[in-house]
Write a structure and sequence with these properties.
The chain has 171 residues and is mostly beta strands. It has strands at 2-5, 21-24, 27-30, 35-39, 59-62, 65-66, 78-79, 92-95, 98-100, 108-112, 118-122, 125-130, 156-160, 168-170. The termini are close together.
């Protein structure tokens, strides 16, 4: 699974506090402390959402990946880099994998902490936008608004049909 945050999954915008939890029926497929790979480089011109993209040079760490220091958001495990010691990058790119060993469930529910916006991808296909405008998304695309309270302290949930989920490795 991938997403960019502007500041979060292809691209979302301004300060990532954490990463998504992905649930299928009652089975957790991506846990809240899953290890993620991340990059602050502009990879929007590359096919970084493709399942076979080589992200081995990217940094990695367990979620929650974060920038802000709001104590209400836990467990904070991996601090993301700043561009100048203070300000976050406009965009962070994230990737993780998970295994599906049985037929896909009838739906997938995502529960996320995102500040400010994100575009979510599953196996190379865009599946959801959170506070990101329609149209092409790039490294400098900003979110249209901020989360309630201007900080990612409440989980935001969305559900999709698992049309591109596969038995085996999913990205």
């Amino acid at each position: 699974m991938m997403f960019a945050k502007q500041i979060l999954w292809l691209v979302a915008a301004i300060a990532l506090v954490s990463v998504p939890r992905l649930r299928g029926a009652d089975a957790v497929l991506v846990g809240i402390q899953q290890t993620w790979r991340y990059s602050t480089n502009n990879v929007s011109a590359l096919n970084w959402t493709a399942p076979d993209y080589d992200d081995s040079a990217w940094s990695s760490g367990p979620a929650l990946l974060y920038i802000e220091d709001n104590p209400a958001v836990t467990p904070r495990n991996t601090t993301l880099p700043n561009r100048d010691g203070i300000l976050p990058y406009v965009t962070y790119y994230f990737r993780t994998t998970f295994q599906l060993t049985a037929p896909p469930p009838s739906f997938l529910t995502f529960s996320n902490l995102v500040d400010d916006g994100a575009v979510f991808y599953l196996n190379g296909a865009e599946i959801y936008r959170l506070r990101i405008p329609p149209g092409p998304v790039g490294y400098t695309t900003f979110a249209t608004t901020t989360p309630l309270g201007n900080d990612a302290t409440s989980y935001e949930v969305f559900t999709i049909a698992p049309t591109n989920l596969v038995i085996g490795t999913n990205v």
